[in-house]
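Field reference: sequence -> structure
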Amino acid sequence: MKSSSPRLSRRAFSLAAASSVLAACTTTSGGSSGGGAPVAATPAPNAGSQRPARIGLALGGGAARGFAHIGVIKALEARNVRVDLVAGTSAGSVIAALYASGMSGIAINKLALTMDEASISDWAMPFRTRGILQGVALQNYLNRTLDNRPIEKMAKPLGIVATDLRNGQPILFQRGNTGIAVRASCSVPSIFEPVKIGDHEYVDGGLVSPVPAAFAHKMGADFVIAVDISARPETALTQSSFDVLMQTFTIMGQSIKAYELDKYADAVIRPNLNAMSSSDFSQRNAAILAGEEAVAKMWPALQRQLVERGVRV
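Structure field:
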């Protein structure tokens, strides 16, 4: 937060919190059903080269910029790119869960346009100082939307990345309650309370894997399409305390992200979101369009790569 400690209205905090959902198990309160505690699963080994490449989609964090993931999915579907598995971090985990459930890009687009940020905001009690929001509202919203389907029952293999608060290690959830896992992945420190799962507490996955290309690879992808929606530090807007917090995450994660994308991503899609603040929920349409345009711009090169790997598009 800024050192001047600006006074923000409830509305501003609601926007920031909702944005962090689209960014940033044993729960202590109010979670809806949808499977047991999320647990890490053993990654599936890559199969041989006698078949077309198995495509994995890695959706990164970036708060309200996460709407751009919807445009990317729509554009890939329009070009007959069949994604076999999906991994998500923070904002990307929300879209990843919806997409893995079997929803099309168009269906997710419609859902996004009707989403009310107030429905996923739940204020913590004044004496609880570990976060402004509990995150249970987000958890319940997602589980309701997905009919309480656990991670392992999705139409596509789904991986959700969070950070273990005790040791700083990444965790990949591939089984259990989808809403709780996404809540953990989206729990931006100081905005959301940490999420207790078993004997551990978890926070935003963007701290350790801003764009989870490595995890998509470990899940069995032969060809990883990564979507990076983070702002370059020199172009990021810092209009609110939440923006400053997200800028801090971006700066901290630059080297981690660069290494992961260079080593594990076969193609990187970077929507042009320079004019969009991480806390601006009102620009969801612009973000979705930016995702579509980013795919269109790099499609000739991406198409060649896919054809070379035996994928018919």
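Note: DSSP finds nine helices and eleven strands in the chain.
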